[in-house]
Specification:
Order of helices and strands: EEHEEEHHHEEHEE
Helix content: 10-25%
Strand content: 5-15%
Distance between the termini: 37 Å
Radius of gyration: 20 Å
CATH topology of the domain at 1-77: Ubiquitin-like (UB roll)
Strand order of the largest sheet: 2-1-5-3-4
Largest sheet: 5 strands, mixed
CATH architecture of the domain at 1-77: Roll
Structural class: alpha+beta
Length: 235
């Protein structure tokens, strides 16, 4: 079994586990959108990125598809990881502002605006509906068609599928189908009113770790010491 280090924790992982499976086993939270435990991993949304490696030889990988290996050093909440996730969420929320799932993820990461022009689409192409139809419903009634700007999810030849049983599994798992409280025509692009979970707040001082105690300095767990920026001590 490979010995790895994840967020400073030395762990002997099961052979064949992915980084995401290890993190969830240890209770380390990694956001996901296109991942579901009952379906094959795809890594399309990229939200589950983590940083692996040491020193200057680090890179971002999708934790849901990356298998653990001997000596792997993983950081799930470094500054680079969090910034990458924020950009991805901004892109997703600009693509589909009506999705409650994406709005909750944005609120959790502290996203209050998006720098990208909203498209107001009704699909984020996460592939969950395609995979659940094929892997759980055993139907293969829908799939991806075309590429680039013409990409869409549809039935073969855009005709009524003879194998579709109208089970509703595709709608059940679709993050775009779960509308925010304002409905399909909200007044703002970013909502941020529904999810109140605390976010990592001390990344500037403790880059590799998360803090759920509150805003920096408010909870009393850490206090600034001296004039040097970012220098703190534990109480």
């Amino acid at each position: 079994m490979p010995n790895i280090r994840i967020d400073g924790i030395d762990f002997e992982a099961e052979e064949g586990w992915t980084v995401l499976e290890v993190a969830r086993f240890l209770g380390l939270e990694i956001p996901t959108l296109c991942y579901d435990e009952g379906l094959s991993a795809w890594g399309g949304c990229r939200l589950c990125v983590v940083e692996i490696g040491e020193g200057e030889n680090t890179k971002l990988v999708t934790s849901c598809t990356y298998p653990v290996e001997e000596g792997l050093n993983i950081r799930t909440a470094s500054q680079r990881v969090v910034q990458a996730r924020k950009v991805l969420i901004e892109l997703l929320i600009a693509s589909c502002p009506t999705s409650k799932v994406i709005q909750d993820l944005a609120a959790k990461l502290g996203i209050e605006r998006t720098r990208f022009k909203p498209d107001w689409e009704d699909c984020v192409y996460c592939g969950l509906c395609v995979r659940i139809c094929e892997e759980q419903m055993m139907a293969k009634a829908i799939g991806f068609a075309d590429r680039g700007g013409k990409l869409k999810i549809t039935t073969p030849f855009d005709k009524t599928s003879e194998v579709c049983r109208t089970c509703g599994a595709c709608m059940y798992i679709c993050p775009a189908c779960q509308l925010r409280c304002e409905g399909p025509e909200p007044a703002t692009v970013v909502c941020g009113r529904c999810y109140n979970a605390l976010q990592p707040t001390c990344l500037d001082h403790y880059e590799d770790y998360k803090c759920y105690m509150g805003l920096t300095g408010d909870c009393g767990t850490c206090v600034k010491e001296g004039p040097e920026k970012g220098r703190q001590r534990k109480r």
